[in-house]
Specification:
This protein is of the alpha/beta class. It folds into 2 domains: 181 residues, Rossmann fold; 63 residues, no CATH class.
């Protein structure tokens, strides 16, 4: 049996010194992998740069940093290896860097766009300014190993990153996909609704729905959601790991 687990968080490079990342530790992915240390199970473990790693003899590790690196390795694995389950627990950035600029270059770029256009209303001017912000080549500073800290402002233009979870069933339709959804301080009804939207959109079989306010060192309240509603409730990472193990071994 082959299992693919993603864990930890992604990190988007600004320059050789600075990165944008999140607080994901990878502890849940680690617990799941360690629970699945069974004869006959091979785990392919894709993890972010800061993720804690499982001590499981049946793991093959694939380190990544950015969303684009995650996309590349996931496509390679899912188009070359048959997986019984994909457990996509990684906290993946919704955005990646498009351009890094400063206040002077940004102001100059907008001014040049405005001077070339004619407008008579605020709405027309707004559209011109908005369009100027899509010209990442004009905004981009020359590539630097470390962006100068002399500028008063460092302005980052972010663009939508690819949704890796949305490609998993495209790459391998027959696999079982368990996705993860994290929201913050929402009602259970809303959490379940968003999880079910993800099931439909990404062709997932199950979604583990979390609320950040219900996660701490000693607890991890989560709901395992199917298209029919709540299937199981968990209160710790260990409970989640054992619940997912039971699902996998029962099939």
């Amino acid at each position: 049996m082959n299992i693919l687990i993603t864990s930890g968080g992604t990190s988007e490079k600004i320059d050789d010194v600075r990165h944008l990342t999140n607080h994901a530790t990878g502890r849940l992915g680690k617990e799941i992998a360690q629970a699945l240390e069974e004869d006959g199970i091979t785990i392919h473990y894709v993890h972010g740069p800061k993720a804690v790693l499982p001590k499981a003899s049946n793991c093959q590790f694939y380190p990544i940093a950015s969303v684009s690196e995650l996309y590349t390795i996931m496509e390679k694995l899912l188009t070359t290896i048959s997986f019984d389950y994909v457990i996509h627990s990684m906290a993946v950035s919704d955005y990646e860097l498009d351009a890094a600029t400063d206040e002077v270059l940004l102001a100059q770029t907008i001014a040049q766009y405005v001077m070339k256009q004619s407008f008579t209303t605020e709405a027309e001017l707004t559209e011109i300014i908005k369009n100027s912000l899509f010209d990442s080549e004009a905004l981009q500073q020359k590539a630097q190993k470390k962006i100068s800290s002399k500028n008063e402002k460092l302005i980052l233009m972010m663009k939508k990153a690819p949704k890796v979870i949305g490609h998993i069933k495209q790459w391998q339709p027959e696999t079982h996909l368990i996705g993860f959804k994290l929201l913050v301080d929402v009602s259970e009804e809303h959490l379940v609704s968003i999880a079910q939207e993800s099931i439909t959109k990404n062709q997932a079989d199950l979604i583990l729905a979390n609320d950040l306010t219900q996660i701490s060192d000693n607890q991890h309240h989560a709901l395992l959601v199917s298209k029919n509603g709540i299937e199981q409730r968990f209160s710790t990472k260990q409970d989640i790991a054992q619940g997912i193990k039971k699902i996998i071994l029962s099939n």
